Amino acid sequence: MNRMVLRSVLIVLCTTGLFAMGGLQNQNSPGKPIVGNGAAGRGDPGGGGAGTSGSLRLRGRVLPKIPDIKGVTDDGKGHIQISSPRPLEVAAEFLRRKSGLVVSYEEPAWMSAQDTVLAGDLPENRGLVEKYPTWRGNLVPREGSLNVFLPDSHQLAKANNLRNVIEDILANHISHRNAGDFKLAEVNGTFDILADKVTDESGRMIPAKLPLDTVISFENRARSLADTIDVICAKVRESSGIPVISTVNMTAAGYLNEIEVQIGANNEVARSVLARAFRGGSLEYSWHVDYLPDEKLFVLGAVAVQAETDTPQGLTLLIPAWPK
Fold this sequence. Notes:
alpha+beta, seven-stranded mixed sheet, three-stranded antiparallel sheet, 9 helices, 18 strands, globular
């Protein structure tokens, strides 16, 4: 994959909303992450601060106000509404923030005209269209919605409760007639929202073919996490012919380039290899696999878990360490 192609993909990611909806932008400065002790999102106190109305000081660092998640309306009483072209990806980000647990997302290849729209037709892009009337953008998934009730963060941080909540969200996804059918998988102690079925060009629902279902093999040796993810994508392309690239080296420089993991694969499912690779680092990371219909290309990105953590002065976001 040459640099020109990668640069073009980066431009597409910016214009199709992936940087603005729980995807690649929320890295919390991965080069210098704010590191928790494994208790983030579980309601345990952290360092001191000045509250969330402005900035919060924790262990000598000044942290910004907790940002809103685009597309989420939270009434503060457990009732959550989500409107987004990728509502389940946004839900995954919200669940990571509230639980401090790893929730990943993998979508299908969007093939049907009934599942896609031009980016300029999305409600969130009305301002851009008004400013640039001739801009229509690339094809993206159509707008979807979710309407769910969640337990408090202390309860959500328990794996059994989170599992039940995700199952409820997936049922809500179907009841709202959103694009694609999805299922829940558990990979090495983490949760993964996976596409199960998708509408094809003729309007039939068919099984989704996901890049990370591919069985791969590669040499066991030390590499950076970023390079390991590149190798996994390369082996998926080689073994399955599915076009997939990693955006990690474009968007998450720092931690993922600095941490080395010793890993190989011997006829293993790529998803399990990827989960094992992340476990080789010290901080909790999830992944997301999105599909760009115009480019007919899957892109794999890494997202630090940014968990709401109580401090004596208020809430802040920390990246939890993997439980020992």
